[in-house]
Amino acid sequence: MSESVPLSVLPSSESTRTALESCLRQLKCHFTWDLVEPGKSLDDFEDEVCDATEFQNDEFRATVFNLLAYIEYRRGRREAALQHLRQAEELIQREHPDQAETRSLVTWGNYAWVYYHLGGHADARMYVDKVRQVCEKSRSPYRMESPALDFEEGWARLQCGGRHHHKRAKVCFEKALEKEPKNPEFASGLAIASYRLDTWPLSQNPIDPLRRAIRLNPDNQYAKVLLALKLQKMNEEGEGDRLVEEALKGAPCATDVLCGAAKLYRRKGAVDKAIELLRKALEGMPNNASLHWHIGCLYRTKVLEIQDTGKNEMCGKREKLQEATGQAVHHLKRVDEANADFPCVCSYLACLYAQVGQYDHAEHYFQKEFSKALSPGDRQVLHLRYGNFQLYQMKSEDKAIHHFIQGVKIDLESKEKEKMKNKLEKIAYTRLSKNEADSIALHLLAFLQELSRDTRPAEENPERHLDSGSFLCSASFAEE
């Protein structure tokens, strides 16, 4: 049987089913791009994709619908997948009527795969034939080299996150730009991929791609924000500040622009400005856990900043401290209630509740954090915070010692580990100053000496807030 013969005119049989499967594997679409990396759960993949797509504005929505269709299919929700594909097809027809056939190839390929797995082989063959009719002049009847297809794959991979996908996306956009070097969409894709890869070894230097994207499309406000963030790291803040102001003026309600600008102001220490921008983004996405997380963390930063002021200055800031604490609790609780996977949410809440003397709530969130599967580093941080809570708020030195020891035993060198060792030394020498034969103190020193093989006396380095049990000095934040 020749592959050039339309599958839809052939009778259904085992041989035509085998031929159909062979054709499906040749299609360029989400089902042949291996988007879910080995070892990554579908839940993690979906969270990453949905978080990325939710922050986009109206650009490339057809690409997003195709990706959502793929996720719905993997979830077993095949009718929902078909609905997303219909939305993608309608958008392409409306927004790119002059390129509708080429731009629809990925969507038709996804249609074919979904119908095939639904058992609708006739419909699957129909979409495979639609692809063949467009690709028949290429060397392979079911795939073709096209900048539009490279762009589709590149943009899909950008949504999936991770170094592997970003590297593949960069290659796709570079390939597309070789054919159409002045295409602003392709240039924007390359700029974003280069920016994200710049955090990995072998710097990608995204400056030139970002400037190219802006030159080809002066209204690309998101590229301006990314360039500003990169310039800020290079200590060229003057141009960066101008770009951000320009981007906010050009797209005052664009979520990706608002979030990027907030990141720049947060780095500058302008916490209130960052909160203002994220609150504006939250107006259009009131249930977005990521926004609540970042806002909550910024208010937590305000709490820490207020705590760092002297006691004399604190008198006039008590109301601001209570306001910042309340806002931090509100937003972080929204994150916890959404069961979103963000680090240390419960221990942050626990420390904030300890700050305002609500110890039952603090205990609840500490225990909730302990119940989670934590990395060694996160577990060390948790033992330090809970040990501080027991030592300073609950006045339980025994429980504090237990948790500091548990944290120190974790096989990971970190600043938290050093702080817990210092705290244990401080406790031991304080006890010995009262009773030279204190068995707990002697056991602590023996434990620390065995751990570090260092028999030197502890240096005088009292921890911040060590002797303070007042409201002003939140002992639960002492590790910050």
Automatic annotation (TrEMBL):
TPR repeats lie at residues 255-288. One of its GO terms (biological process) is defense response to virus. One of its GO terms (cellular component) is cytosol. Keywords: Antiviral defense, Immunity, Innate immunity, Repeat, TPR repeat. The keyword DNA damage does not apply. It holds the Pfam family TPR_12. PROSITE patterns: TPR. Belongs to the IFIT family. PANTHER family: INTERFERON-INDUCED PROTEIN WITH TETRATRICOPEPTIDE REPEATS, INTERFERON-INDUCED PROTEIN WITH TETRATRICOPEPTIDE REPEATS 2. This is Interferon-induced protein with tetratricopeptide repeats 2-like. It comes from Odobenus rosmarus divergens.
